[in-house]
Amino acid sequence: MALANLALPVGITLDRYIMQRQTAFPYATGELSQLLRDMALASKIINREINRAGLMDITGSAGSDNVQGETQQKLDVVANIRFIRALKNGGEVCAIISEEDEDIIHTGNVNAKYVVAIDPLDGSSNIDVNVSIGTIFSIYRRVTPVGSKATLADFLQGGDQQVAAGYILYGSSTILVLTTGEGVSGFTYDTSLGEYILSQPSLKQPPTGQIFSCNDGNVADYPAPVQTYLQRCKQQRMTGRYIGSLVADFHRNLIKGGIYLYPPTARSPQGKLRLLYECYPMAFIAEQAGGRACDGEQRILDVAPTSLHQRSPLFIGSSNMIDQLNGMSLNG
Ligand SMILES: O=P(O)(O)OC[C@H]1O[C@](O)(COP(=O)(O)O)[C@@H](O)[C@@H]1O
Ligand SMILES: [Mg+2]
Ligand SMILES: [Mg+2]
How far is the CA of 86 from the centre of ligand 3 (A)? Predict the structure, then answer.
């Protein structure tokens, strides 16, 4: 066997991909690249902890509630600490908002140009039962002067002002899916190398699909047109799939085609999902992959941000399915 066959290339690492594309990044001075590397590093550590959670004392409740009034899982808290630390030490982020913290976290890097909104662990109800979970992040270039303390204004710029967004899916394999506004790429984590390797250079969502994802237990609360839409899905013998982790449900539908719905419910009349660190980043990725995302009245990216932990209904997925849903007056 030719020796060359014994030394096949391992593929393009995330680092090399970022460097190669740095010219395509706005403001390409390397800070955003470093920031993405810091996110990737933290996710590798968390991936290791998720895989070994049962062997470490990090399963179960942390015994505290977050600003949403939800019980925090130990891994929610651990992941939060790890991402904040990595972004602080990396030096490229001046402030962070997180699902797990009420207020803006100032990193002390006052000369840094970026702010990050993060859901450190998405799908918390699945943490202890070995079902896929994720991390979601959204990156903005600050609007306050470099050298000053970041403010609310840096985070309430609006969905179309995101310069990058992504998620990490800790599933049967761990992947990082990323957009900087030039399409969507996926990187698979090779644990033996400790590297994210480009595995899906250009992810495109099929314009239609056979999968609908929603919490069937809440259907009675959904607006009538949504109930009608779901009935049609069932009449057409579409497949109901719901993992209960937004990242995992979104990713499956991104690959196979489908629609994820989290409408307003009696428990969450504004919807459950958080605009800044769940809806906006997933909507940016969806649109960059040819899909759509709306709140029932408008594009998610057009929803005006008014507060850090604001919630929104979310309908996201294949373009034809969202258009069909939008064809029915969702808030009839
Ligand atoms: O249990 P429900 O009401 O169906 O909600 C599930 C949804 O809530 C979430 O778990 C909310 O995210 P967090 O786990 O980050 O709080 C989504 O991942 C998921 O799609
Ligand atoms: Mg979440
Ligand atoms: Mg979370």
Answer: 18
User: Can you tell me the distance from the alpha carbon of 260 to that of 246, in angstroms, rounded to the nearest whole number?
Assistant: 8
**Mind listing the pLDDT tens digit for each residue in 199-249?**
999 999 999 999 999 999 999 999 999 999 999 999 999 999 999 999 999
- 118 C-alpha to center of ligand 2: Å? 9
**Direct distance between the N- and C-terminal alpha carbons of the chain, in angstroms, rounded to an integer:** 68
99 is in an annotated binding site: yes
DSSP 3-state of 331: coil
> 320 a known binding residue?
no
233 touches ligand 1 (CB under 6 Å): no
**Position of tokens 């394999």?**
173
Q: Does any ligand 1 atom lie closer than 6 A to the CB of residue 209?
A: no
Closest residue (by CA) to atom 15 of ligand 1? 122
State pTM to two decimals. 0.96
CB neighbour list of residue 309: distance below 8 Å, 6 or more residues apart = 67, 68, 99, 102, 274, 276
User: Are 238 and 259 within 8 A, CB to CB?
Assistant: no
Task: Produce one character per residue of 256-286: b if its CB has 16 or more CB atoms within 10 Å, e if not.
Answer: ebbbbbbbbbeebeebbbbbbbbbbbbbbbb
Give the model confidence (pLDDT) of 253-307 as tens digits: 999 999 999 999 999 999 999 999 999 999 999 999 999 999 999 999 999 999 9
Q: Output the residue whose Cα is nearest ligand 1's atom 4.
A: 215
Q: Is 260 annotated as a binding residue?
A: yes
Cβ-Cβ contacts under 8 Å for 7 (sequence gap 6 or more): none
Q: Whose CA is nearest to atom 10 of ligand 1?
A: 123
314-317 and 259-262 strand pairing = antiparallel
215 labeled binding residue = yes
* Residue 229, amino acid: Y
Domains and CATH numbers, the chain: 3-200 (3.30.540.10), 211-323 (3.40.190.80)
Range with the lowest mean pLDDT among 2-6, 166-170, 266-270? Answer: 2-6
For atom 1 of ligand 1, which residue has the closest CA? Answer: 244
What are the backbone dihedrals phi and psi of residue 55, each rounded to the nearest 5 degrees, phi first?
-95, -15
Ligand nearest to the CA of 314: 1
